[in-house]
Amino acid sequence: MRILRPSTKWGRTTLWSGGLSTLLIALRWITGSVSGSKLSGWATFVTLVFAFCASWLTFRWARQELMWRLRHRLIVTYTFIGVIPIVLLLLMVGVGSYLFAGQFATYIATSNLQSELQRLEAANDSLAAQLSTLERSGKLNEKIAGELTTVAGENFPQRTVTVWQREKGFMLSTTGALVDARPANVPDAIQGDFSGFVIDQDSLYLRAVKRYVGGNQCLTVISNVPITAELLQSAISHLGVVTLILPDRNGDVQIPPPAKARPTARARVNAGHVPPPSNRFDPTFRFYTLFNVVDWETGKSETGGVGVVTRPSMLYATLFAALGDQTKLLRYGLLGIAVLFGLIELVALYIGIRLSRSMTRSVAELYRATEYVNCGDLTHRIRVRSRDQMAALEESFNSMAESLVNLMAEQKEKQRLESELSIAHEVQDLLFPHQSPGLPSLEVYGFCRPARSVSGDYYDFIPLGTDRLVLAVGDISGKGISAALLMATLHAFVRAYSLEPEVVLTAAALGSDDHRIYYRGAGTTQSQLSPAVLMTTLNYQLFRGTPGEIRNQVSGVL
Q1: Angstrom distance (rounded) from CA 76 to CA 11
Q2: pTM of model > 0.85
Q3: Taking the mean position of all CA atoms in its chain, how far away is CA 251?
Q4: 278 has a pLDDT exceeding 50
Q5: Cα–Cα distance between 464 and 160 in angstroms, integer?
């Protein structure tokens, strides 16, 4: 019911957008609306709003529910502090290794092709120098040039050479080369000597141009070697599969090459193969880079692509080929460092888990102990297992619980004493006279306000017949329950001796040593009772019935 009747704006927006999205999708399915129609657009928009609102509510729920426990917060903290940096570091190492391996692989392929181009340029310069010497002596002809080309072309089986003497040109070839009917001409855009990759008639070539211009001499020698699978295979040196991607006739290069050839595309050159993996951690990967190529018809520089498909084991063998048997030492050293770092990471992970468990266990026990206290059980104690700040906090909680127990006991005792004092106050209030004695010739009123609940203040009105009254006023030194008890004793003595028949104190009244007391029987005539006799009697009784330290607290007037 809470889902169907949300109380927040986000919840209501999510509910209504979800229902509207479902309705619009159902209408689109019923009406058969095609993509791009208004109904389809509104359905997509409302669905995106619902997805956003639902994602936000899910995030809020996860933050409120899942992040409530300290353990979950620590896990998230350790994830962001420890795991994510390691993942990012490994990702950076992986991306860096991929880029390095790809660049290394393409560098080997392009550098080997550049080496072939430099060799061709050197051979072309050497041949041009010989032909220039023959031209200056007037001995240059096609036959002699062909013999020199054949001798110098052993390293380039498919090499063709074009020689131009001013406007006259002829073409020479080595064994296995395909000779074009027309000699290659140098475009006007290329001035001076040249060497590089060229595209001529949709094919890729290594081409070098050497010119000798001066005086009566004008000689141009052009060496041309087609880049075929055989030449590429000898250049890549067991690197894997290498593909030279030529720009199309519009000057664009497609990297990676499209699965379906375009009408303006030129042929690509492939060579090599990828052997089976040496182990389970030896996957294949692809990498592409760019190189410059010249369109021989226009003389414009364009961009071609080099693609390499290889394995880490092949790059490893190529990179450390010069080390020989020492490669194993390097490999074992790197493996040992990796194992050491892995052990350090495992130890750090173990320590982190132990520390987090100790903290979360202490917090959980503290939380459980507070629930016991909240339920009124103050006898629960936390078991202290360590000697750290969390353990000190647990000991503080145990001490606090013990203090609460003592405080509650003291509070109960205080309440008991207050209840007893309240009863004593009521009893003491009953001892005071609340009505006038009712003498015709005298009106007497009294009022007592003690400083505490009970006190040692005392007054009393004792009528003796219709024309006489005993007015008693006294004060007990001190306050509290002890003074109130002594006051009650005094009250009883005064009442007893004032309302009894005449008391004869032979020793006190006559001053003799005989302390015998005589009472006159009932029905006899009542004798006069003087205050002195009454005070003497009270003093005698208090002296006999109270200890010395309490006896000194009584003072009063009768």
Answers
A1: 26
A2: no
A3: 50
A4: yes
A5: 162
